[in-house]
Design goal:
heterodimer; A: mainly alpha; Four Helix Bundle (Hemerythrin (Met), subunit A); 6 helices; B: 576 residues; Cytochrome C Oxidase, Chain A; two-stranded antiparallel ribbon; 15 helices
């Protein structure tokens, strides 16, 4: 039954485009719209953060005296994420030029992405050990909400990246076939940019 | 890209192999990637939700027949019912009704395309809608909610009813359904227009859907994050909307309305698109002021992001902000009025057929004018202080959201019903249904302008304690409730004759109304592929090339007469 329904799904036309280039262009355009949507999510969350941070209730009390500054580990995770953006770019360039190494660079990107998440997890644990409890103050609350919001998007990106990396290792990407790796890269670079803005805002906010 | 010999009439003969018969079985529907089937599934789901939301409304109205407490509905139950009515009608009915149901069906055909740009994403949108609707139903089982559809903090984070988290989860998911539909439409309009269709040759319904899609993808994410923060705050009892922690509940209102005001235009702009189609086709006259109507859709989309503060005049935001929001609010009247005047100018000296869709379009003109103009009183600071949170507001937004957006949707449904089902409905009963809805609607809601201006607050369970006004309010409430029953009767009749037409209706010709755009140049119901090859198009509002065809008992578009498709076409004059 499930096999049958899967076949039913596969047997249908999945694109109205007859020209693969046009389809690729449409896909890239769609990705830009998705990124615009996600950018609005991050921008509005950051706006809420800035609003709360600057409210008279919190001026002079942020971070509160009993809470630590932001975990130092975030600096390391930032380096990992920027590096992963770099490897992602190199992988895409290699695919576009038909050069070897797409797989290796994708594996590196995937590893760096996982490392980013690992360091983020360490940063959360570190902060909690440091008396920065989620339910104690909005300073802690906003820190976890913003970083978790970003981490959720990273996790959401790792699944397609896993597929892309598998395809890359198998050597499927080249000048003739760029869609998957391009979409994956667009999303990944966006996460990188979003993180930099987010981290900078947090850094600004956590100085008295 | 291949194009037909441009002047040859497109094949409009009805065929046994159409999108409804192309494959069979339940799975062929729920796993379909065909935009037409997805549109039909949306339509059925939206109409089912409409029935549900309508029953809630009738319960609320019936309670209000009695000024005091009644034994069969507690104040608590009343709060639940009006909240559910609002939430269901906004999130499950009006927002998806035109873009997701009718838009999905019509948009690719109007473009001569085989489907939307991302068919799988389109199906995913529908499934997300179902999932979101399930969450809403789930919230009913988990204690329901009584916050009003606006979920204002701090009440929503503290109310003892447990349905808040499931329903905001549902609204979150529905939001993504809406975003994905919007993304799909934008890419489709950009990338899949047929040869000859420049931006300013698009049917105005497409401009409307395009503007709506822009709002969908840029405003809805704000709702997503707002509702997520609300849910987190409700679960952990700390958050940025809680003043006890240094947060601000008014911040929630800003965020909520930053989405929900544009959402009002997600509801009305596609309706305006439908009205542009219906009025020009059923008046058989070239649309007047095409560019103005097209640009006014974009202008409305733009302004929609700048006026959210007019929902919050009494929230304590600064006087300067109130003045700025009030001024920008007035400017929305300009693009709206541009549309109304252009529709009137289209009707002027048109050859108007008073078909059911046209009756709905005329109803829209009346109701939208009333709804729009009363908005100005609410946008004015000093009158709003008096009218805020009264029935005047309820009446105003029902005139716009129901009297305009939903009436346009039902008009559009009648307009494209022959195309979707291949059947004609009874014009006689159609006109009766429309008339009853129109009369019932005005009885229901015009009365509420009176109620509100005399001070009846909205959302009140009882009004027997209001000093000196209880008797007057009672009369108004009786008229209003009576009107709602008449309206319900109109909708029941509509449902009956539409369902009847599915089984007994006359087979519909390809072009029953004399339409000119591409959806009227393919068979009714359309084949699975819409068009074998992408057709070339000319001016889709030039009705001089449309003529009656006795053999098919419908109109045909004579492409050989179109100077843009056939350079040798005889010169005509004065058809604009």
């Amino acid at each position: 039954m499930s096999f049958f329904s899967f076949q039913l799904f596969r047997n249908q036309r999945v694109t109205p485009f007859t020209d693969p280039t046009a389809r690729f262009e449409a896909g890239r355009f769609g990705m830009w719209l998705l990124i615009a949507t996600l950018a609005v999510i991050f921008a509005s969350t950051l706006m809420a953060y800035v609003f709360v941070r600057l409210s008279p209730n919190n001026i002079g009390n942020w971070p509160p005296p009993h809470m630590p500054p932001l975990p130092q580990a975030l600096l390391l995770s930032t380096i990992f994420l920027i590096a992963s953006s770099g490897t992602m770019h190199v992988a895409t360039l290699a695919a576009r030029r038909g050069e070897p190494g797409v797989g290796v660079w994708m594996v590196a990107t995937l590893c760096l992405g996982c490392a980013f998440l690992g360091v983020q997890t360490y940063a959360w644990i570190d902060a909690m050990r440091d008396n920065m409890a989620f339910t104690k103050h909005l300073y802690a609350w906003t820190f976890y909400v913003l970083t978790v919001l970003h981490a959720l998007h990273v996790i959401g990106g790792l699944l397609p990246m896993l597929v892309t990396t598998r395809n890359a290792v198998r050597g499927l990407y080249g000048p003739e076939r760029l869609a998957g790796i391009t979409y994956c890269g667009m999303y990944w670079h966006f996460l990188d940019a979003a993180w930099i803005v987010l981290y900078a805002t947090l850094l600004w906010g956590s100085t008295r | 890209m291949t194009t037909l010999d441009a002047t040859r009439p497109l094949d409009t003969r009805p065929s046994a192999d159409n999108y409804l018969t192309h494959s069979r079985g339940v799975l062929s529907w729920i796993l379909t990637l065909d935009h037409k089937r997805i549109g039909v599934m949306y339509l059925v789901s939206v109409l089912a939700s409409f029935l549900l939301g309508g029953v809630f409304a009738l319960l609320v109205r019936t309670k209000l027949l009695f000024p005091g407490e009644v034994s069969w509905m507690s104040a608590e139950a009343y709060n639940h019912f009006f909240t559910l009515h609002g939430a269901v009608m906004v999130f499950l009915v009006i927002i998806p009704s035109i873009p997701a149901a009718l838009g999905n069906f019509v948009l690719p055909i109007m473009l001569g395309a085989k489907d939307v740009a991302f068919p799988r994403l389109n199906l995913a949108s529908y499934w997300l809608w179902l999932l979101g609707a399930t969450c809403v139903v789930l919230s009913l089982l988990m204690g329901s909610f009584d916050t009003g559809w606006t979920f204002y903090t701090p009440y929503s984070t503290t109310t003892r009813f447990g349905g808040v988290v499931p329903v905001v989860t549902g609204a979150f998911i529905l939001g993504f359904s809406s975003i994905f539909t919007g993304m799909n439409f934008i890419v489709t309009v950009h990338k899949l227009r047929p040869p000859g269709m420049t931006w300013f040759r698009m049917p105005l319904f497409l401009w409307a859907l395009y503007s709506t899609a822009l709002i969908q993808i840029l405003a809805t994410p704000v709702l997503a994050i707002t509702l997520s923060l609300l849910a987190v705050e409700r679960i952990f009892h700390i958050g940025i909307f809680d003043p006890a922690w240094g947060g601000d509940p008014v911040l929630f209102q800003h965020f909520f309305w930053f989405y929900s005001h544009p959402a009002v235009y997600i509801m009305i702009v596609p309706g305006m698109g439908i009205i542009s189609e219906i009025i020009s086709v059923h008046a058989h006259r070239h649309i007047f002021g095409y560019r103005f109507i097209a640009f006014s859709s974009i202008a409305i989309a733009f302004f929609s992001f700048l006026v959210w503060g007019h929902h919050m005049y009494t929230s304590g935001q600064s006087g300067l902000m109130n003045v700025v929001f009030s001024a920008i609010t007035f400017s929305v009247a300009i693009p709206s009025a541009i549309k109304v005047f252009n529709w009137l100018a289209t009707l002027y000296k048109g050859s108007i057929s008073l078909t059911t869709p046209m009756l709905y379009a005329l109803a829209f003109l009346f109701l939208f004018t009333i709804g729009g103009l009363t908005g100005l009183y609410l946008g004015t600071l000093n009158t709003d202080i008096h009218l805020h949170d009264t029935y005047f507001v309820v009446a105003h937004f029902h005139y716009v959201m129901m009297g305009s957006a939903l009436i346009a949707m039902i008009g559009g449904m009648h307009h494209w019903w022959p195309k979707m089902t291949g059947r004609m409905y009874s014009e006689f009963w159609g006109r009766i249904g429309c008339t009853l809805v129109f009369i019932g609607f005005n009885l229901t809601f015009f009365t509420q302008f009176m109620l509100g201006s005399q001070g009846m607050p909205r959302r009140y369970y009882s009004y027997d304690q209001l000093p000196g006004m209880a008797e007057a309010f009672k009369t108004y409430h009786h008229i209003s409730t009576g009107g709602s029953y008449i309206m319900a009767l109109g909708f029941v009749i509509t449902a009956i004759y539409l369902i009847h037409s599915l089984y007994r209706g006359k087979p519909a010709p390809a072009n029953p109304w004399g339409g000119r755009s591409l959806e009227w140049q393919c068979p009714s119901p359309p084949p699975h592929d819409n068009f074998k090859v992408t057709p070339r198009v000319g001016d889709c509002y030039d009705f001089s090339v449309v003529r009656w065809d006795e053999a098919s008992n419908g109109y045909i578009v004579d492409r050989s007469l179109d100077p843009e498709l056939n350079p040798n076409a005889p010169k005509r004059k004065g058809h604009h």
